[in-house]
Specification:
This protein is α+β, with helices and mostly antiparallel strands and 144 residues long. It has one domain: Archease domain (Archease, Possible Chaperone, Chain: A, domain 1). It has 2 helices and 8 strands. Strands 1, 2, 6, 7 and 8 form a 5-stranded antiparallel sheet that branches. Strands 3-5-4 form a 3-stranded antiparallel sheet. The radius of gyration is 14 Å and the shape is globular.
Length: 144
């Protein structure tokens, strides 16, 4: 059993008036989950204080990994909006260009959560999912 070298799990990057999100992971699922963390970290400044109190089932599909990533992030945004939640943790399984899983978080509470930017949607701009030397990277630009 080899030792894992610590790698960054997620980050954001500027893209004109919008913002890019990028997730890294040893597996495709980890990279997608960390891209979701990057997106939700934009929405709440104190993202590290969001608790896992509620769970929502997530399902989506795509025609390739990039469309699957965009569909996944947009499904998360839709479920967060419908359920008035802010998500902080994600468990997914990718099989045959479809995702099944859960998103965990809590109700958005402006007394506890410091609002960040409003993310309107994930886009195909700079969408890329690729195998790297240490695992996977998944990125796209989100409309803010």
């Amino acid at each position: 059993m080899g030792r894992h070298v610590a790698i960054a799990t997620y980050e954001t990057f500027e893209h004109g008036a919008d913002i890019g999100v990028r997730g890294y992971g040893y597996t495709l699922e980890e990279a997608f989950s960390n891209a979701a963390r990057a997106m939700f970290s934009l929405m709440v400044v104190n993202f590290d204080q969001v608790r896992r109190e509620k769970s929502v089932d997530i399902e989506c599909e795509g025609i390739d990994y990039e469309s699957l990533l965009v569909a996944y992030l947009n499904e998360l945004l839709a479920q967060a909006d419908i359920n008035r939640l802010i998500f902080c943790d994600f468990e997914i399984s990718v099989q045959d260009l479809s995702i099944k899983g859960k998103a965990m978080g809590e109700h958005l509470d402006l007394r506890r959560h410091e609002p960040g930017v409003e993310v309107k949607g994930a886009t195909f701009t700079m969408a890329k999912v690729e195998k790297t030397g240490s695992g996977w990277m998944a990125q796209c630009v989100v409309d803010v």
